[in-house]
Amino acid sequence: MNVVRYSGSRTTSDIQDNQTWIFGYGSLIWNPDFKYVEQRIARIFGYHRALCIYSHHYRGTPDKPGLVFGLDKGGSCNGIAFRIRKDEKAEIFAKLHEREMPTKVYTPTWLSVCTGSARVRAYGFVADRQHEQYVTGLSEDEIIFLIRQGKGSAGTCVEYVRKTLDQLAAFGIKEKRLRSFLKKSLFV
User: Domain total for the chain?
Assistant: First the structure.
């Protein structure tokens, strides 16, 4: 299964196209901040959850950045698909863009999402690898340092990572490597 970029005029025949879904892989999992009519455990292929975005606002500052999740190329990612009412799509998408795109570090993308019972098309936010806040190749120590130091308008990076991993665990999704970063971030 591959990621499908939706152009508005083409659909993939085996993807349900009569519903509107949003794919959450970070804070949207525990704080969607929009009304939804259904949620499902979901998986995408072609991207993985990574601590690959310097946070200069919500979980850090330009002088002391934090590190937050993005969908980065390769692998797969388990998360949550939220189905929303089509008549609320414009309002919810506007709210999502306001929340997720203050620095345009993500590329909004239509994704092919496996939900167990069906494949659906879901709107998600993929890391823009050309953006100045995108980062790759950090050592474990650098990641831990950024998680520890990050504090912004929405709280700390430690809290952000913990809430994301705790909510994933509540859905039965384990992230051992990310959990290890969190544990090491809690101990100086």
Answer: 1
